[in-house]
Amino acid sequence: MVKTNTNKDLLKEKGFLSQRQEDFFSMRLHAAGGNLTSDYLRAVADAADRYGKGYVHVTSRQGIEIPFVHLDNTEAARNDMDSKDIGPGASGKKIRAVVACQGDRVCKRGLIDCQGICEEIDELYFAEPVPYKFKIAVTGCPASCLKVQENDFGIMGFCEPFFIEENCVMCRACEKACGSSAITIENGILYLNMNKCVSCGSCISACRKDAMQKQVQGFTIFVGGKVGKKPRMGDMLLRTENKDYVFDILEKTLEFYREDALEGERLGDVIDRCGIDKFGEKVK
């Protein structure tokens, strides 16, 4: 078979990443939030058998790659995936696929609709150009299973409790549920230390007498996180109850990144160079 396309940049745009084996590529496929339908999985399995070595690689960002696609088969493999409405994954200087936990659709600890937010962000921003790369994560609660603090833009659900003393029967259910020692009961008095509280909402779920109630629930936004050779934990920017405000902050964050980034800088690098105060002024 004649090799029709040896332009690796063009192949990368179509989701093909070079392997160490000459003329072989890993075909990266678009997937958002780790939710893959059975039809998607069947199509990927068939493609892995047909064009690869019969297996797939699940990436650290909940994505799918089919390794060992030969150069001669890249066009056929891409056409096959397009016919199944499975687009290429993003790489290079683009906004990557959003990662998300199952949130309140499935997880009993989920405080926000992570999958719904993920779908909206993916529809708006997936594979859009940026100065270097931009990673987004959505997690349902402060357990942060999706490690939002390690992403350029992270969204975390939170729920702050409010104690109603007259409803309390001192059963200690909330104290046992609290994993951060924010609740203590001494001499028949309950103490709620909001300096220790991580706003996970576990005490509210545990209480059967409505003594622990929701005071405010919403979204915590982290910015500037990354891993790699020079890791950086994201800064907690703000909390809000308004989902629309989250999307407004995301849009303004991307504007800031595109306007102020130097070559090869991630968002956290720009924040470190320009200052978190300047960043906050621009995006809030």
From TrEMBL:
Family matches, as InterPro entries: 4Fe4S_Fe-S-bd, 4Fe4S_Fe_S_CS, NiRdtase/SiRdtase_haem-b_fer, Nit/Sulf_reduc_fer-like_dom_sf, NO2/SO3_Rdtase_4Fe4S_dom, NO2/SO3_Rdtase_4Fe4S_prot, NO2/SO3_Rdtase_4Fe4S_sf, NO2/SO3_Rdtase_FeS/sirohaem_BS
Gene Ontology MF term list: 4 iron, 4 sulfur cluster binding; heme binding; metal ion binding; oxidoreductase activity
Keywords in alphabetical order: 4Fe-4S, Heme, Iron, Iron-sulfur, Metal-binding, Oxidoreductase
Domain 4Fe-4S ferredoxin-type: 159-187, 188-217
SUPFAM superfamilies registered for this protein in UniProt: 4Fe-4S ferredoxins, Nitrite and sulphite reductase 4Fe-4S domain-like, Nitrite/Sulfite reductase N-terminal domain-like
Similarity comment text for this entry: Belongs to the nitrite and sulfite reductase 4Fe-4S domain family.
Protein known as: 4Fe-4S binding protein
Protein species of origin: Methanolobus sediminis
